[in-house]
């Protein structure tokens, strides 16, 4: 595609193409002919952008070819990218040769290429947590042991290799635990969990009113009815949330007033959920290995702070003795006199 110095189309047509496609920037060079119009059309069709016209540079840094007869420079080379990738370009400019003069210039583009790492898709294995706290109850413990004995008695002695035996044992144990002990429920609380039934009632009424209004969109009464239920639902949800938090604040304040620190931290943990446990690994003293064990991390911290807080003193004692000493003021050790007040 080439661009000449003669206009082949009118300015309104060019403005229409550029405004619809947005394929060139604000810093274009030269005039356009039919080939230029075809190039802009292709760019608009395939969502492309000329990066040469994005940067404010001198014309000598934009043009790439000199006409042999008119000696005028034109832009006939392009660095093209998609509409969504202009931020990846730092600069696009023409480079002139340092050894000899030519009628063509080389285009160079500086890019910031970000390669997205490939992550293989793996199916998430969601393991239901079993409520093992029920085993502390004698009734649940006896029922669990009875079911395990019955199933292993029906299954008979385990046969096969170690892996097959383990798979059978794991399958029977997991199935029995899910049946008797049941999955563990959430240990944290929230305002919509305790008001689930009331919230569902409000939302069902609003949803029914919305469906009635959509079936008869020209009925103002149904529209007003839907707006009324919508307002009631929002007001009811805000009231439930405020009352729930007010109740929890009163409980926290009660535990604070009664100095019940155990119940205070228990209710805070119940509201915000369990904290994520774990210890971050630390590098060794020579940074050759990474310590992951809890005992090793504690020993490394002790070693680090022992070296940090027990550094040898480098103060010269002769310099300390040259510091002038001021006499001690004994009157500072006595208590100040108490002033008599006019109060009885």
Can you give a write-up of this model?
The chain has about 350 residues and is mainly alpha-helical. The protein is built from 10 helices and 8 strands. It has helices at about 10-20, 35-45, 140-155, 160-180, 190-195, 195-215, 220-255, 260-270, 295-310, 315-320; strands at about 50, 65, 75, 80, 90-95, 105-110, 280-285, 290. α3 (about 140-155) packs across α4. It is extended.
Please bin the fraction of helical residues. 40-55%
Into which percentage range does the β-strand content fall? 5-15%
Instruction: Kindly report how far apart the N and C termini lie.
Output: 106 Å
From the alpha carbons, calculate the radius of gyration and give it in angstroms: 40 Å
Could you name the ranges where pLDDT drops below 50 across 5 or more consecutive residues? Answer: 1-11
Quick one: how many beta strands? 8
The DSSP helix count reads 10
- The helix-strand sequence is HHEEEEEEHHHHHHEEHH
Quick one: overall form?
extended
Structural class: mainly alpha
């Amino acid at each position: 595609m080439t661009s000449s110095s003669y206009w082949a189309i009118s300015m309104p047509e060019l403005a229409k193409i550029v405004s619809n496609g947005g394929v060139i920037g604000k810093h274009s060079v030269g005039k356009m002919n039919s080939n230029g119009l075809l190039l802009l059309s292709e760019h608009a069709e395939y969502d492309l952008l000329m990066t040469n016209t994005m940067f404010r540079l001198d014309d000598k840094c934009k043009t790439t070819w000199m006409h042999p007869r008119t000696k005028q420079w034109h832009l006939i080379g392009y660095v093209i990218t998609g509409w969504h990738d202009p931020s990846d370009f730092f600069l696009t400019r023409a480079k002139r040769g340092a050894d000899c003069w030519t009628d063509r210039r080389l285009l160079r583009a500086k890019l910031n290429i970000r390669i997205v790492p490939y992550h293989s898709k793996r199916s998430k294995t969601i393991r239901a947590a079993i409520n093992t706290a029920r085993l502390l109850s004698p009734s649940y413990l006896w029922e669990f042991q009875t079911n395990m004995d019955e199933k292993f008695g029906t299954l008979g002695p385990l046969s096969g290799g170690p892996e097959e035996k383990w798979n059978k044992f794991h399958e029977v144990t997991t199935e029995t635990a899910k049946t008797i002990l049941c999955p563990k429920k959430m240990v944290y609380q929230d305002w919509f969990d305790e008001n689930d039934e009331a919230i569902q009632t409000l939302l069902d009424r609003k949803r029914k009113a919305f469906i009635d209004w959509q079936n008869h969109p020209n009925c103002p009464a149904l529209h007003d009815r839907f707006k009324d239920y919508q307002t009631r639902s929002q007001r009811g949800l805000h009231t439930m949330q405020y009352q729930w938090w007010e109740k929890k604040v009163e409980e926290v304040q009660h535990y604070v007033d009664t100095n019940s620190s155990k119940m205070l931290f228990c209710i805070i943990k119940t509201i915000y959920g369990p904290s994520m446990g774990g210890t971050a690994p630390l590098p060794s003293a020579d940074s050759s290995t990474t310590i992951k064990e809890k005992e090793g991390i504690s020993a490394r911290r002790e070693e680090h702070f022992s070296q940090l807080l027990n550094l040898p003193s480098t103060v010269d004692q002769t310099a300390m003795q040259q510091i002038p000493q001021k006499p001690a003021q004994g009157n500072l050790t006595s208590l100040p006199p108490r002033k008599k007040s006019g109060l009885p």
